[in-house]
Specification:
mainly beta, Jelly Rolls, eight-stranded mixed sheet, globular
């Protein structure tokens, strides 16, 4: 009986840790990460640490993180509380274990969209987000209608929708994103964003909900897949015509220099 109990306990420990991802310091620091949801649905191509010597784009050092999402890449929580497959969503995404309840923090990441990256608007494609434990997302970085957009979703609905990079700036190039935030449910909060050393957003006010911790997520997370199929089915535009009767296109995105810390220098020290 004791032997059986030991096997069960070890099995539970394996389940709780098997979806953790050990990212090398070459690509990330300041937080450990785990696969979103249970991670059990992840395909081998979904998230990979890749090397410059193999022809992959790298922002600094020798490695970067490659995400790929194909039609049908969806999963669910282990407790059955959330199911991407039932909710018209797909993703390969990592969730940070660095949780912050209040105070000033710095975050940085570099993002690269291949030159042949296909925008699937009106499907919503998130390429980074700040979330809250057991509560709604608060800040979203999206591809939207091309380029890179920031949405302020702190009150649980979008109050601002800002384009911080154009499509031309995104495709086939590395872009460095820097965020300085004071996490607060009061009006003393702030959320500042730089893109390639240029201040592109400066918000003052509530940056989170009361009594919850925030964390960073990144990768590819696309929702409302059916909207893409509706657009393709009913649109007369040539750019959609070639996709009629086909699955939603595959998307590939690279990330590098994913950092979190209490000081600016903690997150940008490798960028030149």
């Amino acid at each position: 009986m004791k032997k059986l109990l030991g096997i069960v306990v070890l099995g539970l420990l394996w389940i709780n840790t098997s979806y953790a991802v050990n990212l090398p310091k070459d690509v990330a620091s300041g937080s450990k990460f785990k696969k979103s949801l249970t991670g059990s649905y992840y395909k081998k191509y979904g998230m990979q640490v890749v090397d410059k010597k193999d022809g992959h784009p790298v922002r600094a050092g020798k490695k970067s993180i490659r995400f790929e999402v194909r039609a049908g890449d969806c999963g669910k929580d282990k407790d059955g509380g959330w199911n991407d497959c039932d909710k018209d969503r797909e993703r390969h995404e990592l969730s940070g274990k660095y949780r912050v309840s209040k105070g000033e923090r710095w975050y940085a990441w570099s993002i690269y969209l291949p030159s042949d990256f296909i925008n699937v608007h009106p499907t919503s494609t998130m390429l980074a987000q700040f979330h809250q434990e057991r509560k709604h997302v608060i800040w979203m970085f999206k591809n939207k209608r091309g380029g890179y957009w920031l949405e302020n979703y702190v009150p649980k609905y979008t109050v601002e929708n800002i384009k911080i990079l154009t499509k031309e700036q995104m495709l086939g190039k590395w872009n460095d994103i820097l965020v300085n935030v004071n996490w607060s449910h009061k009006d003393d909060g702030f959320f500042k964003v730089w893109a390639n050393d240029k201040l592109v957003y400066d918000f003052k006010g509530k940056t989170k909900s009361k009594g919850v911790k925030t964390y960073f997520k990144f990768g590819i997370y696309r929702s409302w897949i059916s909207k893409w199929h509706e657009r393709v089915k009913y649109s007369s535009e040539e750019k959609y015509a070639k996709y009629k009767g086909k699955e939603i296109p595959t998307q590939i995105v690279y990330f590098d220099e994913v950092r979190a810390g209490k000081k600016k220098q903690d997150v940008i020290k490798n960028l030149k």
